[in-house]
Structures are given as structure tokens and as C-alpha cells.
Amino acid sequence: MHGRKLSPVHNIRAMDLEVRHLRVVCAIAEAGSLTRAAASLRMTQPGLSAQLRRIEAMLGGALFDRRQAGAVPTPFGELVLGRARAILPGIDGLLADTARAARRMSAADRVRIGSVGAPLIGHLIQAVKELLPDAEVTSRCQYSPVVLLDDLAAGRLEAAVLGDHPDQELPQREGVVLHPLVTEPVFALLPAAHPLAARDEVALADLLDEDWAVPRPDSDRTREYWSSVCALTGRRPFTPYEAEGRQLIETVRAGLAVSLCQATFIEAPGVVVRPLAGNPLWYRHILAWHRDGPLAAHGVEIMRRVLDGYLDICLNSPTYAHWRERHPPAAGPMPRSNGWGDGGR
To answer: Bridge-partner residues for 137, per DSSP?
Structure first.
């Protein structure tokens, strides 16, 4: 199997291989087990196992023998590890050199902003334009906050809107300032004609009787977080539909599935948003910028303006506005583990 000729289909799939996949393979080899590697990568063991299977599918063979004593590289895995260990130092050096060069070139006349799928990017861009009126401001979106965080550290972005979940805190990156803005509950996203849509709030257990539409597992750790919280009920969601953004909304609108969404999601025709009873899931909005970048001197004012914008968004989200009236954020049940919940207002 290890020496078989790769098909054209395999070659196409292998093109999807990313540097982060090579880092995962090296981390497993260095740790000697998926459990220890998952801890070092701040992932769950099932999540890492699933990612390893996808990497092996892309490359075309098993990389590790899973044994009781740990994970041992196969001959095919040794080949991949040898190449990965030769490649990664050069990539790390390139990233470090370009980060230094980018920071030297960074000036108040250029601000590149990144954002996950959150409602704050417009307010961040507006704040930057008002504080730096002569700056050229550009933006791009990315589902994974870790990718944006790496871009901030490498000097490819000056600021970003990020997010994380309890027990999935974003890792620290050299030179990057992370400022939690607000913690909000996660709500249910339902077809407008669904029987549960008639309720003021929905029990998570009731949602588990339905088919779900969920993000791709490689986008970020949202899907993993949802599944882990559902598992506390003794069940896991059935997830036949993988989708993100508009495609996920259309899947729900068609009545094929239910899903979850940020509390600030504004209802569109055909879908409704309902709070989850007991508020079992949470999401934290985070603003980030580079400590040496052009926005560092304006951090406090940017935070204030974006937070004011967030409060305006809340008023335009009727379901969330009503929830906030019943759960004053200053006294609400905000999760607080490892600093979680800081930045709420």
C-alpha cells in the first residue's frame, strides 16, 4: 500500500494539504500518542483523530499505527515526517522574516483587517477610518480564527475580529494583543415553519431529535464545541449537512435541518432565532491587533467604538434584545474559566 502509484484524484486531493497539517503530523510523532498530542495542540482526542484521518486520506496512506502504547509512525509515515521536518524550519524562517519585514513596512497609511463570521467587522472598519482618515483600509473574512491569529502574528494583518468558546480559548501569539469584547449566548436557528419556532425558548434536548446543519470540522472548533456540549445530555447531534454562511441558512430555510447561531444573528425570511433554555452554549467576541502595528495607540478608543456598535446590533436583533432584558449581562450567568467571560458588558 505504501508504494502504490497515486491516482490523479489523489494528486488533486493532496493539493489541499496545508502547513498546519504537517504540524499536526509532527506533533503526534513527537508526543507519541494522540491523547498527548491533542493536549499540546489544545484539541480533543476525537477531534485530532478525525483530522488525522483526513490528512491520511489526502496523502493516500496510514501515517501511524495506533497501538495501546501509543502512535508509532508507519514506513509511509516516516517518509512524510522526514519531508515535513525538512520543510517546516524553512517555512518558519520565512514567516519570521516576512513578519519582521511587514512590521517595518506597516504604517498608518495601510490597515489590513480580518474577521471571522461575526457582526463586528463593519464597526471596526468604521472606527479605523475615523481614527486614521488617510489610511487605506482593506478587509477579508476567514472562518478559522486561528488562521487570522497567525496572520496577525506574521504581520499579514493589522487587526482582526476573532471569537472562541469556553475551554477553547485562542492561544497567545507573540506580539498580538487579544481583547475580549463581550460574551454572548448561542441561540437555535430554526425553519420558520418548524413547531419549535412557536416557543419562546428551545431545549437543546429537543433540537437533538432533528437533523442538523453544521460547519465543516476544519473551519474552526465550533462544531467540536457544539458536539461536546450536546454530549453532556448523553446524545450527539445527527449532522448529515455540512455548510457555512449562506449555504447553512438556506439548508435550514428549506426545512432540512436545524442549527445554532450567534445571538446577534438577524432573522431572515424563512428562518427564526430562539434562545436555548438554560443558556448551555456561549461565544466570546474578541478584537485583536499587533502590538507594534499602527492601531496599537488607538486600542482603547477602537474598543469603545466597536462595543458601542455591538450594542446597536443587539437592539436590531429583537430576540437577543429581549433575552438581554431578561438576563442583564452585568449580572448574567457568564462562564468564567481560565479568564473566560472577561470583557462582558
So the answer is: 111
**Residue 214's CB: how many other CB atoms inside 10 A?**
22
Residue 263 and residue 113: Cα distance in Å, rounded? 23
Identify the pLDDT of residue 68: 80
Rounded to 5 degrees, φ, ψ at 127 are -65, -45
Cell match 467540536: residue?
224
* Cα 286 from Cα 34, distance rounded (Å): 30
φ and ψ at residue 135, rounded to 5 degrees: -80, 145
pTM of the model: 0.68
- Least Cα distance to 212 among 260, 279, 261 occurs for 260
Q: How many CA atoms lie within 13 A of 335 on its CB side?
A: 20
DSSP 196: G
pLDDT tens string 61-87: 999 998 887 899 999 999 999 999 999
> From CA 279, how far away is CA 232, in angstroms rounded?
14
Residue 176 corresponds to which amino acid?
Answer: V
Cell numbers representing residue 299 in the block: 486600542
Q: Around Cβ 225, how many Cβ atoms within 10 Å?
A: 22
Q: What's the distance, Cα to Cα, between the start and end of the chain in Å?
A: 57
Q: Cα(151)–Cα(143) distance, rounded to whole angstroms?
A: 13
Residue 328 has a pLDDT of 77
CB 289 within 8 A of CB 158: yes
What's the rounded Cα separation, in Å, for the pair 296 and 298? 5
27 vs 341, residue with greater confidence: 27
Q: Which residue has the cell 456540549?
A: 229
